[in-house]
Specification:
The chain contains 12 helices and 22 strands. The protein is of the alpha/beta class. It has a 7-stranded mixed β-sheet with strand order 1-2-7-8-9-10-11. Bound molecules: MU-OXO-diiron (FEO). MU-OXO-diiron (FEO) binds next to helix 2.
Length: 402
């Protein structure tokens, strides 16, 4: 994918990782991803962000297609996670820049990652700006979006916000801009990314969006470090991030379950019928068929999270433990849940699932339902009634607007 000029004198020099599916070891990236780096040609030639170490030569060729690397004066590291800084040792050796700009936390992170105290660090904070000649760069710290070191770089002369992980998506494509791809696909990928990476820091998202508004930044392009660049739908992505962060209730529920001999699955389907009878949209997700990050993506606009597992060795099945651990870490707010599962003799599953959901701050409708071995018609009717109960609670929450 050749480097392209995204604004006069501003080049995308990123890498398209076409075949990546395991993003950072925890999230699916079904469409691959990109590592976007940006090169600004000005009196002080500046590189914003880089790429994983294994792509350092690809980055070299991208930059080299515009200028020799040694002409770069400044490097800005908006974020130190290795997908954006892994090539730094290579780049530092090739470029020998006059200055490396990063947040104060970024300074510490660069030291922790690369153990190079002699690099020419220039830590910055919100409100600081530098001149590149014709342009200025204003820095905005975005702590915990999604690491402590994260920051945005804003170039007012270009109305360009380089937003690092913020507003990004995992999409590998030959297109670079939001008006060149299907908007539905783009928004789905944006949501998947947010709800697997940014979600725990939703309060910070709201604060940053407020700060961007208060600073009166005039933005006509948002250039994230993953995926597609926003130029047509800038206001849409800003508004959508606010919507994500607010986590308003919706009449939708996810039933996540694992099953051994399909008894728990039968229960899941009966619960789904009860939810549907209350006018709640339902998604059933067998955890052997869906990655935990895809379940979180469905939970994005679902207020209900109902979990089922049979009892296995006095516990629950491993994929359900995996999902519950993952979901708890992402800290979704305002969810309503319930627990169910089949059992052969000891039957701990429902209590274990309920306790897990409570530790994830889910409001649990109790009692959950256990079915011994295979659920009969009466037991399935109980499941359906549990679905109705959860459905009523979801509808009431939505109608109350809280
Ligand atoms: Fe894309 Fe947090 O790195």
């Amino acid at each position: 994918m050749p480097a392209i000029e995204i604004k006069k004198g501003v080049y995308w020099v990123g890498i398209v990782d076409w075949n990546l599916h395991d993003f950072h070891g925890y999230s699916q990236a079904a469409q691959g991803t990109t590592y976007n780096a940006y090169l600004v040609i000005d009196d002080k030639i500046t590189l914003f962000d880089s790429a994983p170490a294994k792509y350092q030569m690809d980055l070299y060729h991208q930059i080299r297609s515009i200028i020799p690397l040694e002409k770069i004066d400044y490097i800005v590291c908006n974020h130190i996670e290795p997908d954006h800084s892994g090539a730094m040792p290579f780049l530092m050796d090739k470029i020998r820049p006059e200055k490396v700009f990063c947040s104060k936390m970024g300074h510490r992170m660069l030291l922790d990652h690369f153990h190079q105290p002699d690099w020419p660090y220039h830590p910055v904070q919100t409100g600081d700006s530098i001149s590149l000649g014709q342009r200025t760069v204003q820095f905005i710290e975005t702590r915990m979006l999604h690491w402590p070191d994260s920051m945005f770089s804003y170039i007012p002369e270009d109305k360009l916000l380089i937003s690092n992980d913020g507003f990004g998506q995992n999409i590998a494509s030959s297109e670079r801009f939001d008006d060149e791809v299907d908007l539905g696909m783009l928004m789905a990928a944006t949501s998947h990314y947010y709800h697997n990476i940014i979600l725990p820091y939703s309060a910070r998202v709201l604060a940053v969006l407020d700060q961007v508004a208060q600073l009166g930044l005039d933005i006509d392009m948002i250039a994230p470090d993953h995926g597609i660049i926003w130029r047509k739908h800038v206001q849409l992505i800003l508004d959508t991030y606010r919507e994500y962060a607010l986590q308003k209730p919706h009449k939708k529920a996810v039933i996540a379950y694992d099953t051994m001999w399909h008894s728990t699955e039968k229960m899941a389907k009966a619960i789904a019928e009860g939810l549907m009878e209350e006018g709640v949209s339902v998604k059933l997700m067998h955890l052997k068929q869906y990655h935990h990050s895809d379940v979180m993506a469905e939970l994005a606009d679902a207020t209900g999270i109902i979990c089922g597992s049979p009892t296995h060795n006095n516990g629950i099945l491993p994929l359900m433990a995996d999902f519950l651990t993952y979901m708890k870490g992402l800290r979704p707010e305002g969810r309503i849940g319930a627990a169910f599962g089949s059992y052969g003799w000891s039957g701990e599953c429902v209590n274990i699932l309920s306790d897990w959901l409570k530790t994830a701050k889910v409001e649990v409708i109790e009692p959950g339902i256990k079915a011994k071995n295979v659920p009969d018609h009466a037991k399935l009717a109980e499941c359906k009634e549990l679905g109705r109960q959860v459905g009523k609670a979801i509808v009431a929450k939505v109608d109350a607007g809280a």
